[in-house]
Amino acid sequence: MIIEAERSCLLLVDFQGRLAPAIAEAEQSVAAARRLALAARLLGVPVIASEQNPQGLGPTIDALRDLPELVVAKTSFDASRELELQEALDEERDTVLVAGWEAHVCVLQTAFGLKRNGFAPIVVADAVGSRQPANRAAALERLARHGIEIVTSEMVIFEWLQDCEHPRFREVLALIK
What we know:
By secondary structure, this protein is an alpha/beta fold. It has 8 helices and 6 strands; from the N terminus they run βαβααβαβαβαβαα. Strands 3-2-1-4-5-6 form a 6-stranded parallel beta sheet.
């Protein structure tokens, strides 16, 4: 299945400041998520973020804070349970690219929830993290076993572009280099 920009939405799950110091390789996952979100904005792909208990864990980190069009506060580990997110998701954009923190908790449960609700979640491996690398690895393995595609941010970006003749190709390519 090719990932098409016009059928996609990007969901940034719980990239929050108080989690950052505890996430293994946090900077790399943030860089990949930022690159993906910037490309999404250039290509007309909606960007939504969730924040787990923002009163306790704080807001989305500075590097990503201004990129989503909508930020959904949540208490459920599965962001798809939140009415505000359900209302924001568009059936025309049934492919939901999922990036975020605590791959084995909120990313995993959100991806499963999206699938249960008829969407096609795709988890972006280089844009997810957990406190322990083993938890991240186990989450990606489990997601794949349950039919959820695992990709990288560059795979997504080039599939969104489809062609080097795309009018925004050079701008998007600059995000990768």
